[in-house]
Design a protein that fits this description.
220 residues; alpha/beta; six-stranded parallel β-sheet; single chain
């Protein structure tokens, strides 16, 4: 297991007003709308989610970095746990023509509005119960998804990533290192259920037997 940062550049490209996040619209109402994982979250107002999530190529640099780091080659199989609209999976297919991709997400809306080129390879499922056989994938990833799970589902999801991966695994989750970052995370998030420090996340990895790589994003 290693700490590998593929996400900082994408995460830090967004400017955030943490105070406005909790004053411009009732936070509880925003969270209720976001947790439906429907249009309000993906393509509605910024006050309830992404504010419009369309393909703009930002994930290509992440795909390229993962391809280089893990030595991904044509014929390898990649699974994205919490794939959303499948943009990163699409970029994998462009970075390495001939890779096989699969993705799962709980959002019917996201899957219905996924990138057309990868839509046939996506399915609705829970991270806690992946519909794939043991050691099915050369690379299993989960980007900014697992912190949205309650502890009982998080336990199963980490074990599931380990089960279906035969080579490389990588996840990124939200975390906090200081009280200021904890407050900012609480202000900004709509869907987070597991608020854990890096040390606590590392406890989860050890407790579940997760052996893959990881990184954290924080809200400075």
């Amino acid at each position: 297991m290693a700490y590998v940062d593929f996400l900082s550049a994408v995460h830090k490209s967004t400017k955030r007003d943490y105070v406005a996040r909790v004053t411009e619209f009732p936070k509880a109402e925003a969270a209720k709308l976001a947790k439906q994982w429907a249009k309000d979250y993906w393509d509605g107002d910024r006050k309830t989610g992404y504010g419009g999530y369309s393909y703009d190529g930002r994930w290509r640099k992440v795909a390229d970095a993962m391809v280089a780091h893990y030595g991904i080659k044509p014929g390898d199989r990649i699974l994205d746990v919490g794939c959303g609209k499948g943009f990163l999976l699409y970029d994998f297919t462009q970075a390495v023509p001939g890779v096989e991709v699969a993705g799962i997400d709980v959002s019917t809306y996201a899957l219905e509005h996924a990138k057309e080129e990868v839509k046939p390879f996506l399915r609705e499922a829970s991270a806690a119960n992946l519909p794939f056989g043991d050691q099915s994938f050369d690379l299993v990833i989960s980007i900014n998804t697992l912190h949205n799970l309650e502890c009982y589902d998080l336990y199963d999801a980490l074990r599931e990533m380990e089960r279906v991966g035969r080579r490389h695994k990588y996840l990124c989750v939200e975390s906090w290192r200081t009280e200021e970052e904890k407050a900012n995370l609480l202000y900004w998030q709509f869907t987070c259920e597991t608020f854990a420090s890096p040390k606590a996340w590392e406890w989860w990895f050890a407790h579940t037997g997760y052996t893959g790589d990881h990184s954290f994003i924080s809200f400075e």
